[in-house]
Specification:
The protein has 88 residues and is of the alpha+beta class. It has two helices and four strands. The protein binds zinc ion (ZN). Zinc ion (ZN) binds next to strand 4 and helix 1.
């Protein structure tokens, strides 16, 4: 049986203490597949890759749902002014 306090990250191939792995309830060992450093790198790469796509989707959604955008803006402003009033 492998050392339960150590886990090997399949991305950087390094054996690291389990504290270097994020927690993930959905996995059998309760730990993230990749170490924290790799998870961050993977997330960053994914984020950058999907950024353009997401912005395009948001722009498309806004163009298709102008009334919802207005509604959201209204809600946002109401919240903002409410907070400004409360903190004043
Ligand atoms: Zn790693």
């Amino acid at each position: 049986m492998a050392d339960p306090t150590q886990k090997t990250c399949p991305r950087c191939k390094a054996s690291k203490p389990v504290s270097e792995f994020g927690k993930l309830k959905t996995r059998a060992d309760g730990l993230s597949h990749y170490c924290k450093a790799c998870s961050r790198a993977i997330f960053k790469a994914w984020y950058l890759r999907h950024r353009e796509e997401r912005l395009k989707k948001i722009a498309e959604w806004k163009a298709a749902n102008p009334e919802k955008v207005r509604e959201q803006q209204k809600k946002y402003h109401q919240k903002y002014y409410q907070r400004a009033k409360e903190t004043a």
